[in-house]
Amino acid sequence: MNDELSSVNADGIFEPFHIDQVPWVEATRGARFGLAYQHLSKFGGGSQVGVAMEVLPPGKQANQAHYHLLEEEHVFVLEGSLTLRLGDKAYEMSAGHYVCFPAGQRVGHALVNHTDQPCRYLVLGSSHPHDVSVHTDTGRVSVKLMGEGYRQSAAMGYWDEVDTDALT
Q1: How far apart are CA 105 and CA 14, in angstroms?
Q2: Which has the least CB within 10 A, 8, 25, 47, 73?
């Protein structure tokens, strides 16, 4: 085993744990983006389904608007409220609201806290090593398998720039 904190015991068995044992991670980028999260599934030994407790502070956006081709995401609001940007629409979500972003639903989603109170919610999702995500505000395409991102505008057709007349 590695030295990372987890619920694993001396025999290598992942045991139940209280959420207070899971460290908080702060993620911020500039004045616009910021949240704190606890990666519950990783702490508990999970690798195929992700579960995270997230807190979105007032005036912050959690992530860039995006969708996944292979991974599915779910959000369940526990406390406070936030605005879900889903494509061209906005939805107010508060405690008890739930939303699913099915894999392949080609509509960007983003969570924004326009209130003066933090919003706490659970994020659940499948993990796929070959996932591709599209960031709809910027046109960035992230290829998880390669760990790289590309501009969507650089897309090529299958036969673009191929010499179809000469055998080499």
Answers
A1: 34
A2: 47
Q: Which domain holds residue 96?
A: 19-128
CATH number (domain holding residue 34): 2.60.120.10
Q: Tell me the pTM.
A: 0.90
Please report whether residue 163 resides in a domain: no
Closest CA to 134 of 62, 73, 68, 64: 68
Round to the nearest angstrom and report the end-to-end CA distance of the chain: 52
pLDDT tens for 30-89 read 999 999 999 999 999 999 999 999 999 999 999 999 999 999 999 999 999 999 999 999
Burial of 118 (0-12, 13-18, 19+ CB in 10 A): middle
